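Reviewer 2 asked us to include a model.

Predict the structure of this chain.
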Amino acid sequence: MKKYFFTILIVIAGLTELHPESATGKISGHIKDIDNIPVQYVHVTIQELNIFSTSDSTGYFEFNDVPYGDYHLTINRTGYITKSISIGVKEKNNTVDIMLEKSLIETATIDVTSSFEAQDITTSTFSISSISARNLIKTRDENLSSTIANLPGINSITTGIGIGKPVIRGLSSNSVLIVHDGVKHESQQWGDEHSPELSVYDLDRIEILRGPASLVYGSEGIGGVVNVISKPLQFSNTGKPLFYGDIDLGGFSVNSQTTGNLMLGMGLKNIGFKGHFGYRNSGNVKTPDGILLVNTLNPNVKDTIIGGKLSNSANKELEGGVSFSLNGDFGYINAGFENFNREIQMHDPDPLATGNQKLNTNQFELSGNINLSKTLQLEPILSYQDHSRKEFESIDAKNNDIASLNWQLKTFQGDLRLHHDIGTKINGTIGVTLSKNKNESLGINKLIPGFNSTGLGAYILEKYNSGQWTFSAGGRYDTKNLDIQQTVFSADKTINAQTLNFNAFSGSVGAVYRPASSIDLFTNLGRGWRAPSEFELFVDGVHEGTGRVERGLITLNPNSTPPPEASLNFDFGIRARLKNINAEISFFNNIVNNFVYPSPTNTIDSASLLPVYNIKQDKTTFTGIEYSLQYQPVDYILISWIGDYVKTLNNATNNPLPFTPPMKNIVEIKLQKNLMWGLYNPYLSFKTKFESPQNNVDPLETTTDGYILFYAGLGFDMVLAKTIASVDFSVDNLFDTKYVDHLSRYKSYAMNPGRSVNLKISVPFEVK
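Predicted model (structure tokens):
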């Protein structure tokens, strides 16, 4: 796979020499509030170039050597309404003056996830949520999934605190794509207890797209996309180097957790460097003392869970990365490397059990945007990922490197996109994509065979903007070739070498109508697809991580040719941005043919004494609603309300699907001032989460009771070394409520975490 990476690297380097000469210009301006007072410390980002500048004490900002073209500027500072403006760089000096309005309302203004280019959220035909850099500091949790779990339409399947899998509109695992800086993240996502192995530090924002995204990202993603976007690099606007960085520290009492991250960067006129290193270390998780009665399959019988510390539930994490950027009149080229290393202890009802996981992921990425002409840009995105997953039955086994399960996955991905403008109203992208995977099963137990796979795709997306209307339409064709290697599972079982092929057409059409500048009516009809994973096809045996014996589609029927999943999703929604109110509501109906899911058989394996699950395929339907509301009655109070509901139906059995999220509602009241006692944006917040009972379950799944959790927080920003530092103090599960979440894989034998007192500190710095 590496040869593909380096071959295309040489091609790109050649393109930077062959492109026609392009002129560059300067973008500059002043940022003021409605009283004509300069606003300093405002982040101004050029979305297409992924670079940013900060306004000085006079509100002035500038970007030098920006290639001629059309761009989106995002203007953001806490306490003001975030703005997005379009600007065309067509001459040497391009000036734009910006007025910001004070407000506690926070809303997404840019969408980079639903199409191949950045676009204003008012022109997006999808339902999109976003967490800004400042809010990420407040909400940053143990993992990516729990960090985003309180957004509308988003939930998390958890295995204790350490492991979480995002759930979007009732879909999870390989039905939800994780994208990091434009690259699909591959880390054996088929496992219920396999968490996305990504850092939650050094991030600019996280965007979540609800609905199928196969047009942009290919197979998988029929439920939605979690797009993780790193902080941009900075460049010097003077003749001197710019040095900058960030220190993040945190502590959580519920598991005696400490966290930290250091980022350091340097920017020259056309060259930027950045590196970061982070750690996380935690002990066993504390749950509320006492007992809790939980439901069983017999409605007349309750089980008892005893609270206290969960044995063998600690984890530790080391992560780091470096990135480099070169820009000029040809466009820009970015290169980066990320490493994520984690060790997780797996709690078990047996207090003497010490099962654990050891994970390591390396990702190399090369991307860029080459100006071929004033209306054509070539965007290559190339990556190579190396993911190692080892699962051990005990601490002794880990110390002796005797892995029960051991998978080594290597992935190459390549995208080549041609962006084009046709006049002033039509723009779009055509492209091709290639992916290659190689997985080796090296552990004592195989569970799945070794395999090689190759995917090819071609796509086109066109957008038309005119006055009150925006239309988008696109199509994509993908094919996947799966080459299964001969694998010996045991003395009496061998999977023979074989080849499988999958292909599908996907696409979407959408429209946005803006009857007023503050109202968007959006709708989208999209078709997604997903080939069954190698696990779903061939799994056969005891899977300690899930506590089940699992049998795949081809394991059960060796002569079958399972078809890929195919979804048809309809969305309709309304976005409103009024003076004191920001609101969004969306309705969806997603029909998935050949949906793949684990089905309990109500039998126990005699050898392992574990329940047996068969992988099945049936037609399913997901229907639901998501909503969010922010209301600012006076200048220092913000009231927020978010919620969602999803109903699932297995059309073959007329029953709900297992692990369907219950309805949730979250209400928050925040008191915040722009300036008090010399502190910026001091706030005090109180939040309540209402989780409904889940009684609509598969007949072989237990129901769960509803619960109410309370949260409190306070914090502030302050000027430090000519940048804004932040401090956040919070208490989760304020009253130490005893409960089990319906999406917790521990719900039959362990409570969810108890009260946690948390402290988070972020200190950026800059030296010019």
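Residues 15-21 have pLDDT under 50 and may be disordered. The domain at 110-291+309-336+352-744 is CATH 2.40.170.20 (Maltoporin; Chain A). We have added this to the supplementary material.
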